[in-house]
Amino acid sequence: MRIVVTNCNTTAQMTEEIVQGARAAAAPGTTVTGLTPAWGPESAEGWLDSHLSAAAVLDTLRTYDGPPYDAVVLAGFGEHGREGVRELVDVPVVDITEAAAHLACLLGRRYGVITTLDRSRGQIEDSLETAGVARNCATVLGTGLAVLDLTTDPTRTETAFLTAATQAQAAGAEVLILGCAGMTGLQRKLSSQLRLPIVDGVSAAVKLAESLVTLGLTTSRTGSYARPLPKRRVWGRPQPT
Amino acid sequence: MRIVVTNCNTTAQMTEEIVQGARAAAAPGTTVTGLTPAWGPESAEGWLDSHLSAAAVLDTLRTYDGPPYDAVVLAGFGEHGREGVRELVDVPVVDITEAAAHLACLLGRRYGVITTLDRSRGQIEDSLETAGVARNCATVLGTGLAVLDLTTDPTRTETAFLTAATQAQAAGAEVLILGCAGMTGLQRKLSSQLRLPIVDGVSAAVKLAESLVTLGLTTSRTGSYARPLPKRRVWGRPQPT
Amino acid sequence: MRIVVTNCNTTAQMTEEIVQGARAAAAPGTTVTGLTPAWGPESAEGWLDSHLSAAAVLDTLRTYDGPPYDAVVLAGFGEHGREGVRELVDVPVVDITEAAAHLACLLGRRYGVITTLDRSRGQIEDSLETAGVARNCATVLGTGLAVLDLTTDPTRTETAFLTAATQAQAAGAEVLILGCAGMTGLQRKLSSQLRLPIVDGVSAAVKLAESLVTLGLTTSRTGSYARPLPKRRVWGRPQPT
Amino acid sequence: MRIVVTNCNTTAQMTEEIVQGARAAAAPGTTVTGLTPAWGPESAEGWLDSHLSAAAVLDTLRTYDGPPYDAVVLAGFGEHGREGVRELVDVPVVDITEAAAHLACLLGRRYGVITTLDRSRGQIEDSLETAGVARNCATVLGTGLAVLDLTTDPTRTETAFLTAATQAQAAGAEVLILGCAGMTGLQRKLSSQLRLPIVDGVSAAVKLAESLVTLGLTTSRTGSYARPLPKRRVWGRPQPT
Amino acid sequence: MRIVVTNCNTTAQMTEEIVQGARAAAAPGTTVTGLTPAWGPESAEGWLDSHLSAAAVLDTLRTYDGPPYDAVVLAGFGEHGREGVRELVDVPVVDITEAAAHLACLLGRRYGVITTLDRSRGQIEDSLETAGVARNCATVLGTGLAVLDLTTDPTRTETAFLTAATQAQAAGAEVLILGCAGMTGLQRKLSSQLRLPIVDGVSAAVKLAESLVTLGLTTSRTGSYARPLPKRRVWGRPQPT
Amino acid sequence: MRIVVTNCNTTAQMTEEIVQGARAAAAPGTTVTGLTPAWGPESAEGWLDSHLSAAAVLDTLRTYDGPPYDAVVLAGFGEHGREGVRELVDVPVVDITEAAAHLACLLGRRYGVITTLDRSRGQIEDSLETAGVARNCATVLGTGLAVLDLTTDPTRTETAFLTAATQAQAAGAEVLILGCAGMTGLQRKLSSQLRLPIVDGVSAAVKLAESLVTLGLTTSRTGSYARPLPKRRVWGRPQPT
To answer: Dmax over Cα atoms in chain C, in whole Å?
Structure first.
């Protein structure tokens, strides 16, 4: 089985880290292909970045010409595009935001999300709400760290995460979710220290995608996620000739 | 005061109709400037179109180099982009989806939305929910007509609208909302026939935008809608050189 | 256009301040007429006052014999009566509670209301809920100041407001609402200091009322807000003769 | 124990019927005193009537000079005033709307309310919502009969009730509530025919009031229902002298 | 009238205390019969205990062979079994969790529950939610005391309760609920000290059960709570012979 | 990896069918062990059965003495016990009700559940609600077929399912869920006919359990699902000696 994992930004280094995380979670027979959009933001932080990212990710999948794949994992935590990709492709589509929440609901009564900047909290809340899994979300908290800063100083990142984790537990969280694809890996370091399950969205999405593929399930074409209608679409500013 | 009204698709004819509707609603001192994105879908029907449209609208406003404006009206019913535009510009931003709902809440206890294709219902429901005005929405109904077909046969459009209106009333709607910018004008023909107020989102958004400008109010920069962070962003597929 | 603004209490001085605020917000062609009920409470603080006020305001409008008007603004924050007035008059009716919330939703993701006494919080929450705009309300907070004390010591009022504003921001508010008609004017002084938009309900209601009138929209008579049935009604304790 | 039952309108005949219903439900040691407001609407149908009624009921209790009482039952289904009366008196206050819903929740998973005119549905929904018992309400339905017509043709009333009952069951109701104090008595005739429990609000409120009195419980003065502040209040239009 | 009160655990001493509380609340003509399950947990703390308790309570009522009874009170705060008992018996069934909440809603705008261990909070929240009375619940708080420790050191229990009461008030509670049948009696000691109404579920359930019996109301057999289907059921591990 | 799948009833034939379904979904390295409770109901239909089943399932797992296992799948659709099992065992626990809903949310905007008897609808709704996945549930519908009748006449079962499926789609469902473990297998026959994804809870739960095990995730012990406290518990009526 081949799973395509799309980064939501143009930073290839981040795609690699995400692919590593995805491969660590994947079953033996699963091949993971990472895609980095050729355009979009270098990191997605805020609504404008998220809207730009959604179009770029759609364009990336629309023009993909590699080997056939069985599922798509969207590796932008809280980013837009999920529903459009469900229209576009015929295979199952799993977004890391919803994936983490689905697994977290199985592990405790309330979960908390720990993300990067405070400005991303609203997007994540909306994404969980429309995915239908917000009911058991106790809180979404920021660490104050930008996406591209997560890996520059691992100790600072861990400390910021632990501080937010304490707040999340006080708000009722019994499970934590890594609220950024760039945090992948942190769950292994911090879970035993916090004595709490920590769910990484990339890993969760890979397992859910594999599950759907194995069960022969894919997106319903009845209603919301019908195939895009054929029409004229231009994907980016026309160039002067 | 100048209000920029952005069409969500690339069909200039539709921009003109929207601008006409906007001008009909505008106060004497208000200038309405219509913008048609240079890229994007020729009509927005479904999530993929909506995600593409959001990026194109943002790009259109980002690269706008006309006279200064005092407010932005986003004329795509149920389309994405609202929050990103709030980050981008320093003036008030009003989306026609939320605008129609805000005014409808003042006119009756429950409102209904009548839109084009059934596939757009989910987007509209989500847009109303995240805008905070879904509580009094009795139903969102489709007419089965595509966006670009609305004007080809006005009698068919009116009949389809009246059929859906009856269903909406049965579901509890006391006020109706035109669920597509391309329906602008229909409210004048059908309101007295139906003996119900019908709210057009474009008109509603123009009045709300004027209201905010007059009161000196604009988007809060504290929290969700802070200015976009400076970073590298590419707005469309790089061209081969 | 003429807008009638009804004070919810019998204190004429407060009507004047409200009318001043309304006039400051009104468009050039709008005439604002203030009405002070001849009976009711001298200030509305709590449910009993609110119920008394609602009947008095209805009676005031029912027996009004001045020049015709185009809209009614109800200037009691969190007070009852809104729906009854919608039944009574044929023109649009806008309550300052809902009006402030409608505009606040356009300016940030969550809003907070800062009111007078803690005892008023429940009424305001219920009023926002039934108006359909409570979803984005982060908090309703009291300042501990009574309605008629707001103007006696402006410095104390400002200090109390600023303290509550800080709490509201901590609760997630990105926009603030003045939760009492008697606070009108405060938004101009404090908005830049707090670097947050502050919405005054009186101003907001005037603009929304003007918007509805301009668009030719008025209350739906289908369903909830049908005209009152003709029947015997006595408006106050019969006097001994 | 003495329970004061206040009619919400000025029709003394209706007070008598309500008192009869209350007495039929009361415990041996309970004395029921009926109060008919000296002013207000002759029947409460719609918001305007409800607001007028609330003030009249408050005035009636405020000026009551009979023997001391232990609890108040408010016998207006869906009418305003509940919270104001809780501020006014020191004894428990039970509104028949909430009372019926509280008992109905104990008898089945979802309940339905059958009321008089459709225009009253909204008020009832709001009253249940703010009382905290709307969650298990499957539907609120009208019979098309006006309050004062309920007793003129009992067969018509029963037929209309049975028709609405069928609709309510289809909507999921497992228990029915009589949505008007003037329907009291109907539960005895129709419950076995429908093979469903039917809850009458007047009876329910009497039992709940007795329960609270017996347990020594009364309204909390902390927070929302603090005593009315001393101030100048005028209860009705001052008379020309 | 005879009311059967079932303890949720096997501790007969606790049954006696509950029966005492029930008798103190019962009307003169009401006989209270306490039942202690012959199997189950010695105290119910957590979900496993609650599930075990539910089956044991059902078995206790199923095999009851004493004098006929008119109602059942389930005296396990937050414990499972309520709906199953409604299927089993033909008389009204009142659970102390919901009973306390129903009365609390009549006494203040928001109520708080103070229970034993933190681990019980989730069960109580779910029980209130599915009973339809969670809307006005401000908070559910633990005292850190185990069920069987409540009576060992009354001073410690009171102190822990008072501490939690302060937190509950800060969270908006205007009324408190004793969140464990073993706390019965505490309301008399602490209500005046806290100047808040405190509702004891056992007393509340007795009054509600009496109310239903007096009004001739019992569980609806239409829909959810139909009689159990005849089938083979084994109530506990078959013994080796 | 070994997954223990517990039937919720004592019918061994049904355990076998469930185990077959589970094995069909399991990964190559997964061993599925079916457990049939030695006591409980022969089929679970209604609340009483569900409460009895929960205790029996807990007892079955508590006294299990087979080879170690890595996860538990609870194969009773809408039945109680989930949370208690999470307390009892140290490995991940997945209930087929929640499992089906989690996967269904990934496949369409709204899902519908088709179950056996109407009386089970309430339990399923509550189970989805407390699991945190009810938001996207469009409807829960019964087929009128008892659990043990599902396999006696496959044609009748399919016809009944298809009828309910049409109703579910009319209610907005874009994905269907088999609302009984005894329906396992039906998804393969009917999915292409209905042109809709159909999710079987047993298969879904197996995949989710495997996912959690692979990712090294298990139930949080912080808060709700702490280990059961050591205490005296009796699991079934003591036998006369």
So the answer is: 60
Q: Closest by alpha carbon to B217, among C212, C207, C29?
A: C207
Q: Which residues contact B99 (CB under 8 A, 6 or more apart)?
A: B73, B201, B204, B205, B207, B208
Nearest CB to F108; choose among A169, A172, A225:
A225
What value of ipTM does the predicted structure carry? Answer: 0.96
Residues 6+ apart with CB under 8 A from B88: A48, B58, B61, B62, B228
Helix and strand totals (H; E) in chain C: 8, 10
Query: Chain B contact for C195, CB < 8 A?
Result: yes
Q: Looking at residue C93, what is its pLDDT? A: 98
Q: Backbone dihedral region of B182: left (phi > 0), alpha (psi from -120 to 50 degrees) or beta?
A: alpha
* DSSP-based three-state secondary structure for F32: strand
User: Above 70 in pLDDT, residue F114?
Assistant: yes
Residue E99, Ramachandran bin (φ over 0: left; ψ between -120 and 50: alpha; else beta): alpha
- For tokens 């919270």, the residue is D83
Mean pLDDT of C83-104: 98
> Tell me: the pLDDT tens digits for B96-111?
999 999 999 999 999 9
Residue B229 has pLDDT above 90, yes or no: yes
Q: Cα–Cα distances in Å, from D64 out to D39, D58, D67?
A: 14, 10, 9
Query: How far apart are the C-alpha atoms of F222 and A176, rounded to whole Å?
Result: 11
User: What does each C-alpha distance from B223 to A130, C109, D230, F77 come to in angstroms?
Assistant: 21, 8, 42, 43
- Give the span between the Cα atoms of D235 and C235, in whole angstroms: 9
Question: CB-based contact (8 Å) between A80 and chain B?
Answer: yes
CA A103, A104, A109, A110 dihedral sign is: negative
B220–C197 C-beta distance less than 8 A: yes
Strand partners, D175: D111
Q: Name the pLDDT band for E81 (thresholds 50, 70, 90).
A: very high
Main-chain dihedrals φ then ψ at residue D92, nearest 5 degrees: -60, 145
Contact D220 E92 (CB under 8 A): no
Residues F28 and F33: their CA atoms lie apart, in Å, by 14
> How far apart are the CA of F198 and the nearest CA of chain A, in angstroms?
8
Task: For residue A220, list chain F residues with Cβ-Cβ distance below 8 A.
Answer: 107-108, 174-175, 196-197
Single out the residue of C27, C220, E52, C8 nearest to residue B211, CA to CA. C27
CB contact under 8 A, F27 and A195: no
Confidence bin at D241 (pLDDT 50/70/90):
low
Q: Residues 40-69, chain D: which have Cβ within 8 Å of C? A: 40-43, 45-52, 54-56, 58-59, 63
**D169: confidence class by pLDDT, cuts 50, 70, 90:** very high
Asked if F194 and F163 touch (Cβ cutoff 8 Å), the reply is no
* Chain D: residue whose CA lies nearest to C53: D55
Read off the pLDDT of each residue in F120-136 and give the average, rounded to a whole number: 97
Return d(Cα C71, Cα C82) in angstroms, integer: 13
Domains of chain B (ranges, CATH numbers): 2-95+204-214 (3.40.50.12500), 97-201 (3.40.50.12500)
B217, two tokens: 């109010």
Q: Are A238 and B39 in contact (CB under 8 A)?
A: yes
Structure tokens given for F99: 């499992």
What's the maximum distance between 2 C-alpha atoms anywhere in chain D? 60
- Give the model's pLDDT for residue F184: 84
Residue B137 φ/ψ, nearest 5 degrees: -80, 115
pLDDT at F240 over 80: no
A186 or B96: whose pLDDT is higher? B96
**Quick one: D61 exposed, middle or buried, by C-beta within 10 A (0-12, 13-18, 19+)?**
buried
In chain A, which residues have their Cβ closer than 8 Å to the Cβ of B46?
84, 87, 226, 228-229
